[in-house]
Design a protein that fits this description.
Helix 4 links the parallel strand 4 and strand 5. This protein is of the alpha/beta class. Helix 1 packs across helix 8 and helix 4 runs parallel beside helix 5. The protein is globular and about 55 Å long. It has two domains: 204 residues, Rossmann fold, CATH 3.40.50.720; 36 residues, no CATH class. 47% of the residues lie in helices and 14% in strands. The chain starts with 8 loop residues before the first strand and ends in an 8-residue tail after the last strand. Strands 3-2-1-4-5-6-7 form a seven-stranded parallel beta sheet, with helices on both faces.
């Protein structure tokens, strides 16, 4: 299948590890020119070195705790370089814990890093997408928008807000050839999953291996996802082949989510 992504430009957030990095690599393999964005410049340089060297890939250093600064840096980059056909919104999730015991600052921080930053990035990239008649905004969020996950109270709350923002944006931008979709990872082999397993192990008083096996047993596929499997789904949604898919939540979770 030809995805028709050659020489498209993509801004990939959280692209130095996990799903974000796997997505940057997958898109680059399809001929996309990648701009990585994250807060650690050393990790950005290391990831940049792994991308195919025959295209002018680049990076932006930005901290998602400051959406105003983020918007300025991306706007300056666009002014001096190029616009983006593809935006991958991907930010590490909030720490776990019951929603009732969460401090109000945890909600504020998560809302800023996820919804506010997604919003300012969309505002930065959409004008170029409109001129091109082609745009793909893909938000990596969570299956919790369909079924809240125990012990991830703040994440459940904020992910729902992002999903509804995304659906609203899809309704507004569809007429311009711009789609907005959400990919919902299940348990995926990333640093965040390692943290979740450690927390479950400590809470239940069992080993980390036992905690991981219990999580796997809840998945019909009986295993965790690989970041590359999420990246494949994202790459398809970013392609011309997915032009009539708009405003959806796509679980990539091995069948774990019970709802349709």
């Amino acid at each position: 299948m030809n995805f028709n992504l050659n020489n498209k430009h993509a801004l990939v957030c959280g692209s130095t590890a996990g799903i974000g990095k796997a997505t940057a690599l997958a898109l680059a393999e399809e001929g996309v020119i990648i701009t990585l964005i994250a807060r650690n410049e050393d990790k950005l340089k290391a990831t940049l070195a792994e991308l195919p060297q025959h295209r002018p890939h680049n990076y932006i250093v930005a901290d998602f705790s400051n959406p105003i600064d983020l918007k300025q840096k991306v706007s300056d980059y666009i002014s001096n370089h190029h616009g983006f056909h593809i935006l991958i919104n991907n930010t590490g999730g909030p720490k776990g814990g019951p929603v009732f015991s969460a401090d109000i600052s945890e909600f504020e921080s998560a809302f800023t890093q996820h919804l506010k930053c997604n919003h300012v990035l969309a505002q930065s990239v959409v004008p170029f997408m409109k001129t091109e008649g082609f745009g793909r905004i893909i938000n990596v969020i969570s299956t919790s928008v369909k079924q809240p996950l125990d012990g991830l109270g703040v994440s459940n709350t904020i992910r729902g807000a992002v999903a509804n923002w995304s659906k609203t944006l899809a309704n507004e931008l569809g007429q311009f050839g711009i789609t907005v979709n959400n990919v919902l990872p299940g348990a995926t082999g990333t640093e965040r999953l390692t943290e979740i397993i450690k927390n479950k192990s400590a809470k239940m008083g069992n080993t980390e291996e036992e905690a991981a096996n219990a999580m796997k047993s809840a998945v019909p596929a009986k295993r965790f996802a690989k970041p590359e499997e999420l990246a494949d789904a994202i790459t398809f949604l970013a392609s011309e082949r997915a032009g009539y898919i708009n405003g959806i939540n796509l679980p990539v979770d091995g069948g774990r989510t019970k709802s349709l």
